């Protein structure tokens, strides 16, 4: 997967992405996620946000267990549609529970999101996405 | 499907949603869409935006043809995570090519998005989503 420098900058700058999974019966699911790009991988925590309510965040974990195929979208919406843009990543996901990569992901996430510095991410799963291809699109080529 | 007045207001106010589909092999796909809520249905056009590039927008139509199950997310991201919120709609999608509902959808879309007033939506498909259930979530109950 080769992304242009411009696309990588767009992905790195995004604060939120949308992760689509599907269960074994082909029912899609989509959720906003926080993430970091680390080389060619994308890492996203199951954080404390869902604790306020029943753990719906776990649906994505169940889906990944049944079917590791995912799609991840990073996009920009503006009322001036000439500024619309997105990057769609197709790949597979795996759940990390501990280990070096898990630890490294937490460091990167805390660097990007100060909000995570006070959350106990160590004990929480990290979703590791391995992209197989990416498509980038912009309404206007100038943007 | 019963949505609270607050949830309906949140969905109506949103300018963009994220539509997840999956193909017959369970590969998810997700794309930003413009939409209107009409009673219990959600309507979204295949508009002229993708014309600038090869018609990737058609992937969602192919997926719906293979598998009508969809998920649609309307969410709000803010750096103050107490303001995070989303509504996740699970349902099925159908593609409308013409007819009364198609015509009505175009009128509603043009009312919501002035950008559509100069686009020839009449000749383009409309995706009609029939929700079967919806889940709403907010990080903070106060928001």
What does this structure look like?
The structure is a homodimer of 143-residue chains. With 143 residues, chain A is α+β, with helices and mostly antiparallel strands. The first copy, chain A, has one domain: Roll (Pnp Oxidase, Chain A). The first copy, chain A, has three helices and seven strands; from the N terminus they run αββββαββαβ. In chain A, strands 2-1-5-6-7-4-3 form a seven-stranded antiparallel sheet. Mean pLDDT of chain A is 91; it is low at 51-56.
Write the topology of this structure.
Two copies of one chain form a homodimer.
Chain A: H1 5-13, E1 17-22, E2 28-33, E3 36-38, E4 41-45, H2 58-66, E5 69-76, E6 85-96, H3 100-112, E7 126-138
Antiparallel strand pairs in A: 1-2, 1-5, 3-4, 4-7, 5-6, 6-7
């Amino acid at each position: 997967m080769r992304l242009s420098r411009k696309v990588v900058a767009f992905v790195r700058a995004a604060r939120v992405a949308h992760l689509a999974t599907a269960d074994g019966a082909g029912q899609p699911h989509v959720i906003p996620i926080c993430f970091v790009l680390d080389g060619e991988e994308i890492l996203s925590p199951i954080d404390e946000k869902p604790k306020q309510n029943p753990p719906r965040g776990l649906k994505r974990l169940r889906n990944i267990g049944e079917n590791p195929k995912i799609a991840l979208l990073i996009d920009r919406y503006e009322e001036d549609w000439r500024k619309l843009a997105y990057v769609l990543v197709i790949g597979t996901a795996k759940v990390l529970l501990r280990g070096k990569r898990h630890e490294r992901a937490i460091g990167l996430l805390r660097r990007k999101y100060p909000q995570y510095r006070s959350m106990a991410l160590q004990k929480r799963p990290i979703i590791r996405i391995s992209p197989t291809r990416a498509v980038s699109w912009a309404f206007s080529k100038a943007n």
